[in-house]
Amino acid sequence: MASADRARPTNKFTFTITITSSAAMAALLPAFHSLPLPIAQLSLAVVLKCGQSFRWTVLPDADDTEYRLCLRDRVVCLRQSPTTLFYRAVYPDPQPTPTQQALRDAETLVWLNDYFQLDIDLVTLYDEWSVRDPVFARMQSRFQGIRVLRQDPWENLISFICSSNNNIARITKMVQALCTQYSPPLLSFPGEDAKYHPFPPPSVLSEPGVSATLRSLGFGYRADFIHRTAKMLVGIHGKHNPSEASESWLVGLRNTTTDEAREELLKFVGVGRKVADCVLLMSLDKKEVVPVDTHVYQIAMRYYGLKGTSSSNGKKVNMSSKIYNDVSTKLFNVWGDSAGWAHSVLFTADLKSFASYGLPTPAGPTSSPQKILMQKDLLPTLSMAPLLSPLKRTHSEVIVDNPMNAGDDASLTLSLAERVKRRRRVA
DNA sequence: CAATAACCGCGA
DNA sequence: CGCGGTTATT
């Protein structure tokens, strides 16, 4: 391993090379590396399937579920134990040199750190929210490891245009169909049929006929939104097209204020306040933003003393701009400058059935007594059981330089510089 | 501004 | 019939 040759006494980083029990597979695929990471900091089982990203493949296994995501040049594979995150990346070409592989592994680690925002201490945040909010304090232990992913803005924007009037299962199918239809397969795994497709770039989705094709794939009215949004983005921000300048423009919104970025997002078709706020929170670093949908509205009304807009009759009241703002502002005031992250915890908890965990109704004057119903069959859904069993693997430890310090690699340096810049802006 | 309809497809 | 929403129209 080339990076191990470099003498870097400081910031040594320990990780584990994992040898799978199948020698044949080990020969074809790179081994898993490991990263010490308490499950309270990240729960893959919840975070990857709770409606943030819709593109993770899950390979269920009673003991050891694997999660895979196809990036532009590699497929990232993850597994998890209560104390450790296991990762590897698989590439299209068959046999990279050990040096190539080591560099790629280092890149993948940088990507992981960025995508999961691992420099943010989730446990400390949970504590802070608990101090500010008794409701959060009461349920936090049940929902550990729920953090906001830092996703690609373009992919995130299109995914959430798909989310209108929709559910996670179908959004997942639609995004999958979109990738299969509009980007060539990157690779498939040895002995497996499934092909892994990256997310298609804006230029591809802006081509003629995309709307009709997506409609035939069951996208409904969202087909036009996606096509038109892609055309707008490429037409306005991708004029000179040195490989997708429009995507870079979207990424650049990370360096603008929340209001400015939201204003830009709202210009696209199919993007209203809710979708815009999701993109702001989940891919543009605006972690104070609280997206409001009907679920969040219900939660705010029930547990945070927001008055339901005089719907004394059981009438269904639409989400007006005023209601949206009231709810979003209220929850921001409850949770503070990382309110969007707290919202994600509560929202995910709600997906798994909020009431079944015996949350108290607030004691405030605006609250009405609510009967908490114990719901059957919902509790096991959140169980971490698959992750608690011992792993069927053997480990041998090696010490290498922390790839985060590999200052002689341009791509790593760039990523790190970008991160530092981002943190500085937040602070 | 608040309220209503239309949009698409899927599941209850 | 209703949905984790947006757009267009009153």
From TrEMBL:
Group of enzyme by EC: lyase
Keyword entries, A-Z: DNA damage, DNA repair, Glycosidase, Hydrolase, Lyase, Multifunctional enzyme
Pfam families: HhH-GPD, OGG_N
GO MF terms, alphabetically ordered: 8-oxo-7,8-dihydroguanine DNA N-glycosylase activity; class I DNA-(apurinic or apyrimidinic site) endonuclease activity; damaged DNA binding
Residues in HhH-GPD domain copies: 162-350
InterPro entries: DNA_glycosylase (IPR011257), HhH-GPD_domain (IPR003265), HhH_base_excis_C (IPR023170), OGG_N (IPR012904), Oxidative_DNA_repair_enzyme (IPR052054)
One annotated GO biological process: base-excision repair, AP site formation
Reactions catalysed: 2'-deoxyribonucleotide-(2'-deoxyribose 5'-phosphate)-2'-deoxyribonucleotide-DNA = a 3'-end 2'-deoxyribonucleotide-(2,3-dehydro-2,3-deoxyribose 5'-phosphate)-DNA + a 5'-end 5'-phospho-2'-deoxyribonucleoside-DNA + H(+)
Domain of life: Eukaryota
GO cellular component labels: nucleus
EC assignment: 4.2.99.18
Entries under PANTHER family matching the protein: 8-OXOGUANINE DNA GLYCOSYLASE, N-GLYCOSYLASE_DNA LYASE
Similarity annotation: Belongs to the type-1 OGG1 family.
UniProt protein name: DNA-(apurinic or apyrimidinic site) lyase
Lineage of the organism: Eukaryota, Fungi, Dikarya, Basidiomycota, Agaricomycotina
